[in-house]
Amino acid sequence: MAKYGLIGYNIGYSFSKTFFNFKFEKENRNDSYENFDIPVLSEISEILENNPDLKGLNVTIPYKKSIIQLLDEVDKEALQIGAVNTIKINKDGTLKGYNTDHYGFSKALMEFLPIKEKKALVLGTGGASKAVKYVLEIMNFEVTQVSRTKTDNNITYTDLNRDIIKQNYLIVNCTPLGTFPNIEECPDIPYEYLTEDHLAFDLTYNPRETKFMKLSKDRGARKSNGLKMLEYQAKKAWSIWIS
Length: 243
Description:
Blueprint: E1 3-8, H1 16-26, E2 32-37, H2 44-50, E3 54-59, E4 73-74, H3 76-81, E5 86-89, E6 95-98, H4 101-110, E7 119-123, H5 127-138, E8 142-147, E9 154-156, H6 162-167, E10 170-173, E11 199-202, H7 211-218, E12 222-224, H8 227-241
Parallel strand pairs: 1-2, 1-3, 4-6, 7-8, 7-10, 8-9, 10-11, 11-12
Antiparallel strand pairs: 3-5, 5-6
Helix pairs in contact: 4-5, 4-8
């Protein structure tokens, strides 16, 4: 019997535990998957010490970037992205980090191509946004990141206007805004400028339709939540753990 799990903070909403335990039951495996909800990342050492049968971990908000410093080895692609969401625990106890978010996002996005013009707004600058930006740039999208704070690499929400929205036909919400239980929250963008040529892609999957998606749909835009992305990245993580 092997154990797997998810580390993050305030992760009761996560679908990963349900996904993997259903998979194990369906395949008659004795393996299990557990949520490790930790307020500080340093508690991972205690998790590893108390769970010697752990073979792999997923990583979510807010630790996808900070986890890198605690790993023995990081996959080249994950290093390039700057975020890790999957950890393989080797037989000798060493930890190797991978990023399967980029795989999940690219597979999920393929179902909505083509998009009218290869220009995208990526909302947020956390670990998930790094994987999204990585994928879009490989696909030759012109990417503009949006954050609450202005830097040399992004614009702010207050910068968003009609022209910017009209020029960017893909808008990806990489922030936690709208995630259960705070379902009335959403990114502060001018939704009134969205059209039927836009795709509003929310990495959130709980609820199935976020306020970001509803407001976008009201303007005629196509919409997607992050459930397919989660499923694709989870399957990729599994292939890494058992390799």
